[in-house]
Amino acid sequence: MIPLRDADYAGWRLILWLDLALLVLVRRCERRALTPLMKALTHAGDTPSWLLLTAALAASGGDGPLQAALLATGAGLALLVSQALKRVCCRPRPSEAPGDAVCALADDPDAFSFPSGHTAVAFGVAVALAGQGGALGEVALALACGIGASRVYLGAHYPLDVAAGALLGTGAGWLAQALVA
């Protein structure tokens, strides 16, 4: 392990403090009418939703099978990398952090927070489907942004987790395009 200089450690502590402060600010936006929408967005990013969309695209004919392959590849790559990083980083969920600053509004799929797997997969799908005709890529990108926002709103992730998931998913989507298209 490379020892951190005091300045490096202080910088990292500041980033983590800002991450928590932004999470608390977002959580203060909680509204009774908004919470069901955020839960729906999160569930749209669950594995069964992506499997259903993949099957629908594969069965649709035309460009559907190619789009299904892109979706499955982008999602699969993002999922594999995000889950591996979760097990390496072992960052606790906001609701498990010392001080109980955040109460989660939904159940967490696992114990680890960094990076956001839901966000990584959603961006992997969105970028993989970019340029595929119609508004499919644009709709997938809007959904990915909504899924990422919902993960912070629900207290499942810190903003840094979601940003890392978006970057990871973007890379997975580009790789999917290179491999499939």
- Alpha-beta content class: mainly alpha
- Mean pLDDT level: 87
Q: What percent of residues adopt helix (DSSP H or I)?
A: 55-70%
Number of helices: 7
Major sheet attributes: none
Strand content: under 5%
Task: Give start-end ranges of low-pLDDT stretches.
Answer: none
What is the N-to-C succession of helices and strands? HHHHHHH
Structural write-up:
The protein has 7 helices and no strands. 69% of the residues lie in helices and 0% in strands.
Key features of this structure:
69% helix, 7 helices, mainly alpha, 181 residues, 0% strand
Topology:
Blueprint (H helix, E strand, L loop, with lengths): L5 H22 L7 H10 L2 H13 L4 H26 L27 H13 L6 H18 L5 H22 L1
Helix pairs in contact: 2-6, 3-4, 4-5, 4-7, 5-6, 5-7, 6-7
Task: Write a short abstract of this structure.
With about 180 residues, this protein is mostly helical.
